[in-house]
Amino acid sequence: MLECMRANRAATQTGRYDTGPEATPRGCDQAACPTTPGAGRDLCEWKQQLRCSLPRGDGAIRRSGTIITVTIRWDDSRGSSGSSNQQFLYATGL
């Protein structure tokens, strides 16, 4: 996702990639994403990949100046000592 954001810097700087987590995490679906290149398609495909790769997978992107924070969340409760609210955060400058 960050590479898509770097390639589309103008959309990143205007907040078009900013997104929060789903209010209710969805399961894997194959709903059609936009065919036109850009932030909408990138986000749709990224969220779809998270939902289909991780149990109750979801993601969020927050921009604060030139710092981008990407959060990936999933349900790891089936794992040994896993949490139903597992998350991974990555922050980088853009």
Helix content: 25-40%
Strand content: 15-25%
Global mean pLDDT: 91
End-to-end separation: 12 Å
Derived structural class? alpha+beta
In terms of quaternary structure, the protein is single chain
Q: Which spans of ≥5 residues are poorly predicted at pLDDT below 50?
A: none
Count up the helices. Answer: 3
Number of domains: 1
Quantity of strands, as a count: 3
Rg of Cα set: 14 Å
Shape, principal axes of CA atoms? globular
User: What is the H/E string?
Assistant: HHHEEE
Trace the largest sheet across and list its strands: 1-2-3
Structural write-up:
The protein has 94 residues and is of the alpha+beta class. It has one domain. Helix content is 28%, strand content 24%. The chain is built from three helices and three strands; from the N terminus they run H-H-H-E-E-E. It has helices spanning 2-7, 9-13, 39-53, and strands at 58-64, 67-74, 86-93. A three-stranded antiparallel beta sheet has the order 1-2-3, covered by helices on one side. A hairpin with a 2-residue loop joins strand 1 and strand 2. The chain is globular and about 40 Å long. The model has no long low-confidence stretch (mean pLDDT 91).
